[in-house]
Structure formats: C-alpha cells, structure tokens
Amino acid sequence: MNTALQTLETERLILRPFVAADLAALTPIYGDAAVMAIRKLGVQTPAQTELELVAIIDTGTISSTGGQEVFAELFENGGSPAAIVEDRGLAQVSDSGELDKWCQEAIDANPGPADDFRNGKENAINFLKGQVMKASRGKANPQVVGETLAKLLKG
Q1: Alpha-carbon distance 81 to 87, whole Å?
Q2: Which residues pair with 36 in a beta bridge?
Q3: CA–CA separation, 79 vs 49, rounded Å?
Q4: What CA–CA distance (Å, rounded) separates 14 from 83?
Q5: If one looks up domain 96-154 in CATH, what number appears?
Q6: Which of 37, 67, 93, 113 could cysteine-pair with 124, CB 3.0–4.6 Å?
Q7: What is the full per-residue pLDDT of the chain (155 aa) written as tens digits?
Q8: How far apart are CA 88 and CA 16, in angstroms?
Q9: Residue/partner pairs of 128-132 with CB below 8 Å, 24 or more apart
Q10: Cα separation, 43 vs 35, whole angstroms
C-alpha cells in the first residue's frame, strides 16, 4: 500500500488547501513535473478529490503512472478521478483469466528466460514480466503478473 500520505498528512489536506509541505508529500505519487506545475500555477484542488485519487492508486485500481495521468487531467479539466480512470481506460487488469493467458503466452514465446527462472535465476522473471506488460499495453497489475508468472513457472 502506498504510504506517501500518512494519516496526519491526509487530515491536513482535508482541512485546508495545499501548502509546500503537502506538495512535497505528493511528489512520490504524482511525479516531480506535475507537482512543479501546481507550484508554478498556484493551482488548488479540493482535498477530497486528491484523497479519492490516492485511494484509487492505493487499492491498485491504477498504477502510479496512471495516477500521474489522472492528476494532470484533474488540474487541466477538473472532474472525478474515478470518471477519468473509466473514460481513459486506465484501470489495471487483475483478472486472473486474462493475466494467465498473457503470462502463458510470454512463457511460451520466451523459453530461455522461463528455463532460467526454473533453474534458479530469480531475476529472469523480470524479462517475462516486461513481456506481459507489453502485451497488456501497461494495463496488467505488475504485482499480480509476477505472482502469476511464478505460479505458472513453478507449477
């Protein structure tokens, strides 16, 4: 779970608009470029919107990269984080059926790294994970992909 915003920081965000300390806490979530744009423009958003976005990232609904895209859209056009995720199709895929298919295809297409992993080279799974992320166009949940690949390769 993303711990960039601690409970105390979250309470502070609810009570008032952003200040410099809040922006520093948001940098790991949204990236330097987005936070710098906020500082430069002096933009303020409702804290509840920010909390909704953090919750969507924390639950794994979208990746941190997807969160950055939603964040930029919020400041450009406003709206609801959930609606932006839906409209742009940013939700991560965690469905085991679809992930199993992508993972098996990556294993079948790349027998070398698959065998390397089976022979004890734990890092070989990262290549396969990259192939699954490529096949899913970045929508697969990387943590679930790693678990699925390991299960299929060991199993």
Answers
A1: 10
A2: none
A3: 9
A4: 21
A5: 1.10.10.410
A6: 113
A7: 344 444 434 444 443 444 445 555 665 665 666 555 555 555 555 667 777 888 888 888 888 788 888 888 887 788 889 999 999 988 988 778 889 999 999 999 999 999 999 999 999 999 999 999 999 888 888 889 999 999 999 97
A8: 30
A9: 128/103, 131/106, 132/99, 132/102, 132/103, 132/106
A10: 10
H/E run at residue 49? helix 47-58
Side-chain-side CA neighbours of 154 within 13 Å: the count stands at 10
The three-point CA angle 7-12-16 to 5° equals 155
Total residue length of the chain: 155
Q: Which of 15, 76, 8, 81 is nearest to 47 (CA)?
A: 15
- What pTM was estimated for this model as a whole? 0.60
Distance CA 124, CA 113 (A): 5
Domain assignments of the chain as residue spans, ordered by start: 7-88, 96-154
Name the residue with tokens 């297409």: 109
What was the pLDDT predicted at 33?
60
Q: Give me the pLDDT at residue 53, please.
A: 85
Asked if residue 25 lies in contact with residue 47, where contact means CB atoms within 8 angstroms, the answer is no
pLDDT at 54: 83
